[in-house]
Amino acid sequence: MTYWEDIKPGDTSTLGSHTVTKEEIIVFATKYDPQPFHLDEEAARQSIFGGLIASGWHSCAIMMRLSVEAMRREQMAGVGSPGIDSCRWQKPVRAGDTVTVRTEILETWPSRTKPLGFIRRKAEMLNQRGEIVLTVIGVGMFRRREATA
Amino acid sequence: MDLIYFEDVTVGESHRFGRYEVTRDEIIEYARQFDPQPFHLDEEAAKASMFGGLIASGWHTGAMFIRMLNDHAIPGSATTGALGFDDLKWLKPVRPGDILSVETVVLEKTKSRSRSDIGVVKVEGRVLDQQGEVKMTLVSLVLYRRRSAPLATG
Lengths: 149, 154
Description:
The structure holds two protein chains of two kinds. Helix content of chain A is 26%, strand content 34%. By secondary structure, chain A is α+β, with helices and mostly antiparallel strands. Chain A is elongated. Chain A starts with 11 loop residues before the first strand and ends in a 6-residue tail after the last strand. Chain B has helices spanning 24-34, 38-41, 43-48, 58-72, and strands at 14-21, 79-90, 99-111, 118-128, 134-145. Chain B is elongated and about 55 Å long. Chain B is α+β, with helices and mostly antiparallel strands. Chain B is 23% helix and 36% strand. Classes of the chains: A alpha+beta, B alpha+beta. The interface between A and B is medium-sized, with 34 and 36 residues. Strand 2 (83-89) of chain A pairs antiparallel with strand 2 (79-90) of chain B, so a sheet runs across the interface.
């Protein structure tokens, strides 16, 4: 198990990758974010985006999926998140893009009231051209090693 | 209906809308696809977790928030997406049976420095449950078209 004590400021990691399909962009948009530029190729072409793009909330969901898979691989004792400091959708994510996520731990601090610790992490999603499409700075909660003894 | 453009938005204006019934099946479906942690996926495991029962992924709550905006706010507005958001807080767990709604307050308006056809509106959004308890808050940076300028495409 990887506990809060094992995570240090400056730690970096590259999470797995995911290729985004037109179908999944449209399925997500239909359910949660049915704006024309997420839903309809013709309407998207006439928008400021010039073509179909994934919902920003879909990009965040893909980032979360890649994070959870990495946490599972590294057996990290994550127990959720109180929130996100900032999220920027810097470039559109389009059908056929293959995205990866790189992360850096910015700081860590223990909870004063619970057997947990917090981390602040920057996560950047890059496309196959190496362009940053999404940056999320958020806080994660992890179990502490001492608490499980 | 006349669309609401950047010029029509007033700092301080507030709106309340939406009704989203959260179901167990949808919580699990979203979690399977995007956030497969035990407390979002499995009722038994969730009971043993610090949350004491199944809760929605925070990103799922965000997705339900943007759905309510799509159903009530976006269609009448000349918005064209968002730059992102700041200060998102997941204050209380969202559980099966919760009925969510949204409250928005306009905090600030800024003309885009790089594009004369667009302005950025800072909107505080809150997701409330049926008891009026605040589940999630965030400050969205929404792009509005400007009435004065035709929109450049492509």
